[in-house]
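Problem 12. The chain below contains 189 residues. Write out its predicted structure in token notation.
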Amino acid sequence: MAHSSSARPVWGQTAPSTSPLHPWLTSQGSLTRLLRAQSNGLFSVQPLREGWQPLRPDECQSLNCPPDTDGWVREVFLCGQQQPWIYARSVASRHALLASGFDLASLGSRSLGELLFADPAFNRGPFEFCSLPADAWPQLLLDSQPCRQPLWARRSCFSRQPLDILVAEAFLPAFWQHLNTPHPDRTPD
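Solution.
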């Protein structure tokens, strides 16, 4: 996730097992499919930014790329009932993406998850988890969210040789409000 400051997320944390967040963070299936069901069919993808740019050091490491590798970066909101519920950042190295022929650039408002789960050649790697403090949020997220509580996020790598796509998803406050669930890091009153 591109960030507004020098703060970087610390991936590899343990998902909060006692929170209502746990089943959403650890679900192995398609998040898009779950969100469609939760939104009663009022699901959409709102593209925010995409294009070639240098990948972050932690992304290069996860993708087994040299530092400062250029890649395709796609940032979107996954919306339910016309509210941003999830901020997603998907990245792939330029070399692997061009070698694979997979066309991330033409997705537009289509869900990347639908494509990944529809292609049985893609294998999903293990999840990593992170609690993102506001000073580690991307500027796009800071500009759109009035709440500054930490956000739990997950990421995993989808592989179909020679392509690896790293997908990170942060769960936004509007999602928890929709579920009528307190923020996972807030103790009930």
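Discussion. The first helix runs from residue 22 to 26. Students who got a different answer should revisit the alignment rule from Section 12.3.
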